[in-house]
Amino acid sequence: MYKRQVWNSTDNAQIILRNGVLVGTRGIGSDIIAADADMTIRALQAGATTSGTRRYTISDGDVTTTDYVFSCNVRNMGGERISVANQLFDTRHMREDCVGGPQQAVRLSNDYWVQLGSGLVRKSRQWVSPSAGFFEIIVIRN
């Protein structure tokens, strides 16, 4: 079962998460219009090493979009205790390494710290687009 969350900034930009994985943005420029993150979500839930395909549709800033298809490997980097808002959480650090995009020229690594027991992605660093780069997302509340 997928849990979808939409977070809004004070200037009405949005990030859209599915089970803690970034699947959309609005109002930041070069937005993620759509993303297929099923393989990543399953790997994070299982804590398993796996590989598969990720797809993003990224806005070009006008009425056109570019599709990015990545070949990705997700691996379990082991347990890690992290601090969020002066609270300690035991997590499983997962890393997703991907290559793809036009001419296979884009390489990226997404990191996820998944809270043990709850499966909540407590902290992550995720790719948005070539021009926006990466977002660090920290979940303070459950």
- Please outline the major beta sheet: 7 strands, antiparallel
Percentage of helical residues?
A: under 10%
Strand content: over 45%
Shape designation: globular
Termini gap:
17 Å
What is the H/E order? Answer: EEEEHEEEEEE
Strand order of the largest sheet: 4-5-6-7-8-9-10
Counting helices, strands and paired strands, the structural category is: mainly beta
**Count of DSSP-assigned helices:** 1
Quaternary state of this entry equals: single chain
Walkthrough of the structure:
This protein is mainly beta and 142 residues long. The protein is 6% helix and 63% strand. A 7-stranded antiparallel β-sheet has the order 4-5-6-7-8-9-10. A 3-stranded antiparallel β-sheet has the order 1-2-3, with no helix packed on it. The mean pLDDT is 93.
What layout of secondary structure does this protein have?
Layout: E1 4-8, E2 14-18, E3 21-26, E4 32-36, H1 38-46, E5 50-59, E6 65-84, E7 87-100, E8 106-115, E9 121-129, E10 133-138
Antiparallel strand pairs: 1-2, 2-3, 4-5, 5-6, 6-7, 7-8, 8-9, 9-10
